[in-house]
Every structure is written in C-alpha cells, then in structure tokens.
C-alpha cells in the first residue's frame, strides 16, 4: 500500500470535544450579547484558540484589546476544561481504538496532529496516549491549519515522506492543511459540510486496514 503512516486530528475525530468547545464559545457569545449558531461553529473547527476567538468576535462585531482577548481566551479554556476533566475512555468515538490497533498490527505508524494545547491532557483522560508513535499539538506548532506545519512535523518525526501519510480530519482547515502538505486525506464527516478530501467517512465503525489499502493501492 502507498501509505506508511496515518495522522489523526483529535477534536471531532478521536473524541467529540467539538461539542464542548461549542458550549464554551456559545456561553461567551451570550455573555457578550450576541448569538452564535452551530453552523458558525464550523468555522472554528481545527483553528487555534486565539484565531477562534477572533472569528467569534468578528461574528458578534465586538472589538476587544489584546489584553481583554487574552483574558477571554483564558476564561473560555477554563470552561472547556471543566468538560475535559470529566472525560473518560467512554468518550473515544466508536471504532477508533479497534482501527488504531488494526493499523498498528499491519505495520502502519500512527501520529496525532492537533491544533489543541489541551491534547496531552485529553489523551491522558481517555488513556489513548500509548497508541501514538508521535504526538504534535498546539504547544509545539506556530502556524495554524490550513498551514501544513502540524502534519509535516508528524511526518518528519516519523521519518515518513508526506506523500506516504494519510490524514484523518473533521475540519475544512485540517483537510486543506493535509493537502497543502502533499498528503492524502480522509474527511471524517459529511461531504455536504467538507470539500476536497479523497474520501469521506461518517466515522470509524466500518473502516479497516483492508479498505484503506484498497483506496490507496
Ligand atoms: C482544535 C479544535 O482541535 O483545537 C478547535 O478543532 C480548537 O476548535 C483548537 O479551537 C484549539 O484548542 P485548545 O484546546 O488549544 O483551545
Ligand atoms: Mg478536529
């Protein structure tokens, strides 16, 4: 097969933390006096915390100083962490653990490529850290998706050519980051919401090594 490594986004791919991010941002929007819909939340997926805040403030047409933004981002994160601290292995999305084990037993290297600074905490909460050969997250990259930095760093650490890496992403910015890095990409979600991926899957329940080895001969 022409794939040697699989790189997984975290939020919305391994766990459904997107719902927690949404609740925390929505509460902030309400506090600032405007509405924030689930559709608008799509624009925040995959992008860094500070960029997400900027998008949110643009939606509400609210202007804040750099210091006020720092405090707002901090308070959103505190609210988000209240949910994260309650997470357990049960939050791992269906089929994920089986698929990771299937890849490993077929000699595929596995990385996590996430924009989140909370990725290590989440992996620890759901006890999935040991499944990854490499973890690259928001603490170690400078440029946010759709810049390919996070995924290229995974490839470099795994010592695998970008063209032999397959990325799993639920965010449009993430799909574009993978393509910008010259990688293959499977969109996790509906093609109604996402574009440009090679294939789309609703989740990992029906995915196995056999199928991806047919997709990427
Ligand atoms: C991404 C999420 O994985 O991480 C974004 O899709 C989030 O919604 C970003 O804003 C940053 O996360 P965190 O945990 O560092 O605030
Ligand atoms: Mg995501």
What features would you describe in this structure?
The protein has 217 residues and is of the alpha/beta class. The chain folds into two domains: 5-16 and 90-215, 3-Layer(aba) Sandwich (Rossmann fold); 18-84, Putative phosphatase, domain 2 (DNA polymerase, domain 1, Orthogonal Bundle). The protein has helices at 18-32, 38-41, 49-60, 66-84, 96-105, 119-125, 149-158, 172-180, 209-215, and strands at 5-8, 109-113, 134-136, 165-169, 184-188, 199-201. Strands 3-2-1-4-5-6 form a six-stranded parallel sheet. Helix 1 crosses helix 4 (66-84). The chain is globular, with a radius of gyration of 17 Å. The model has no long low-confidence stretch (mean pLDDT 96). Bound molecules: 6-O-phosphono-beta-D-glucopyranose and magnesium ion.
Overview features:
binds 6-O-phosphono-beta-D-glucopyranose; Rossmann fold; six-stranded parallel beta sheet; globular; binds magnesium ion; 2 domains; 217 residues; DNA polymerase, domain 1; alpha/beta; 12% strand
Order of helices and strands: EHHHHHEHEHEHEEH
Report the major sheet.
6 strands, parallel
Q: What is the rounded distance between the termini?
A: 5 Å
User: Helix fraction?
Assistant: 40-55%
Q: Which superfamily, in CATH terms, is the homologous superfamily of the largest domain?
A: HAD superfamily/HAD-like
Structural class: alpha/beta
According to CATH, the fold-level topology of the largest domain is Rossmann fold
Mean pLDDT score: 96
Reported CATH architecture of the largest domain? 3-Layer(aba) Sandwich
Give a count of the beta strands, DSSP E runs of length 2 or more: 6
């Amino acid at each position: 097969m022409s794939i040697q490594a699989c790189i997984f986004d975290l939020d919305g791919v391994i766990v459904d933390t997107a719902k927690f991010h949404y609740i925390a941002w929505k509460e902030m929007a309400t506090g600032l006096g405007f509405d924030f819909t689930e559709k608008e939340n799509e624009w925040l997926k995959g992008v860094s915390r500070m960029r997400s805040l900027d998008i949110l403030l643009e939606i509400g047409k609210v202007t804040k100083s750099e210091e006020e933004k720092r405090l707002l981002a901090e308070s959103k994160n505190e609210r988000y962490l209240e949910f994260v601290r309650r997470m357990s292995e049960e939050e791992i999305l269906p089929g994920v653990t089986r698929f990771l084990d299937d890849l490993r037993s077929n000699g595929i290297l596995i990385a996590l490529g996430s924009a989140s600074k909370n990725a290590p905490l989440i992996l620890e909460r759901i006890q999935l850290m040991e499944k990854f050969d490499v973890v690259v997250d928001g603490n170690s990259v400078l440029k946010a998706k759709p810049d390919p930095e996070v995924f290229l760093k995974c490839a470099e650490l795994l010592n695998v050519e970008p063209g032999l890496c397959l990325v799993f992403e639920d965010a449009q910015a993430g799909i574009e980051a993978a393509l910008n890095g010259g990688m293959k990409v499977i969109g996790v979600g509906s093609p109604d919401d996402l574009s440009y991926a090679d294939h789309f899957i609703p989740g990992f329940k029906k995915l196995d090594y056999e199928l991806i080895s047919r997709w990427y001969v």
